[in-house]
Amino acid sequence: MAGSSSCSLLVLFVLFGCAFAAKDILLGGKTDAWKVPSSESDSLNKWASSVRFQVGDHLILKYEAGKDSVLQVSKEDYDSCNISKPIKHYNDGNTKVRFDHSGPYYYISGEKGHCEKGQKLTVVVMSLKGGSRPIVAFSPSPSPAEVEGPAASAVAPAPTSGAAVLQGGGVFVAVGVFVAMWLF
Ligand SMILES: *[C@@H]1O[C@H](CO)[C@@H](O)[C@H](O)[C@H]1NC(C)=O
User: How confident is the model at residue 114 (pLDDT cuts 50, 70, 90)?
Assistant: First the structure.
């Protein structure tokens, strides 16, 4: 049972371009995103809520070293912008954090006053088990295509054509054997 399900997962890996591969995710999609946001709509959390973070992924935060820093803090310290007791502290300007467990991660700027102005980030990291969700999300799309008819063969070419090739090969071999018997 476990063997066959991991096998089909492997097939899905290949089909969906390794959906589970760990990613390096640049904060905000740009190199200067770790700063006081210009507006609420530009907030880091708005960006973060649109991104899928999974265990094993890295988040990269770029900023000017010495001018800012990144603190990983508890939820309480995140809420109150308390920079006095960070869990982790980074100030190298090119911070790469790895998410090694699922759940929320809280980051605030270590610069006085920045967190209060919105330079804070919550990342919710999903477990690899949660990572099977994209496959569930993918599977509804082939279904409507099947209903449409011709598109179905384009959606699922591998099993169909694979079977056809095998059958074709079988027919070819059978014909070959028949011809051989007839000749000799
Ligand atoms: C920040 O947290 C520390 C302990 O974690 C506490 O002693 C301190 O009073 C807090 N500061 C503020 C401004 O809440």
Answer: very high
